[in-house]
Write a structure and sequence with these properties.
Helix content is about 50%, strand content about 0%. By secondary structure, the chain is mainly alpha-helical. The protein has a domain of about 110 residues: Orthogonal Bundle (Photosynthetic Reaction Center, subunit C, domain 2), CATH 1.10.468. The chain is globular. About 20% of the residues are buried.
């Protein structure tokens, strides 16, 4: 494996590790409103309070219209949205959801997120077939391409010297 391939694999795995570590932590105090991360955390905390006592129940049994990760515990499902999708795209919950009607499919971005989740699963499967990577569990996630932006950048900027 070339140094470039090793760096790319390490970057992908590092992004996953950061998201997993953030998901495993207890929710922090709500930061000041005004930025998408603060708003996402505030909204997630509201939903978290509304599911108190049902955190370990399956997402499909706690929330309505769950199409992705239905068998994940409800609190973990919420953390994936809060620390995964929201942070990866630099948005708050209202990018995909209608507050107070979280099950609504009114927003196109929600369907896009579902499709992108399937795309990521396909890419992960295909990466496993590339033996030359030398990794039995190569990974990509939303952050791999989006890097905190709704639209992934097609420009890497000038080469490093």
């Amino acid at each position: 494996m070339t140094p470039t391939h090793k760096a790319a694999v390490a970057l992908c795995l590092g992004s996953l590790a950061l998201a997993a570590a953030a998901s495993a932590q207890a929710p922090a105090a709500t930061p000041a409103a005004g930025d998408p991360a603060a708003e996402a955390q505030r909204m997630a905390n509201e939903v978290r309070a509304s599911i108190a006592g049902k955190e370990q129940a399956l997402a499909k049994d706690v929330f309505k219209n769950v199409m992705i990760f239905p068998d994940m515990p409800a609190d973990r499902f919420l953390r994936v949205m809060e620390n995964g999708w929201s942070r990866a795209l630099g948005v708050d919950c209202t990018h995909c959801h209608v507050p107070g009607n979280w099950a609504s499919d009114e927003k196109r971005a929600k369907e896009v997120a579902r499709g992108m989740t399937k795309l990521v699963a396909t890419i992960r499967t295909q990466l496993k077939a590339i033996e030359a990577l030398g990794d039995e569990n190569p990974n990509v996630n939303c952050t791999t391409c989006h890097r905190g932006q709704v639209k992934p950048s097609g420009n890497l900027g000038p080469p490093r010297s």
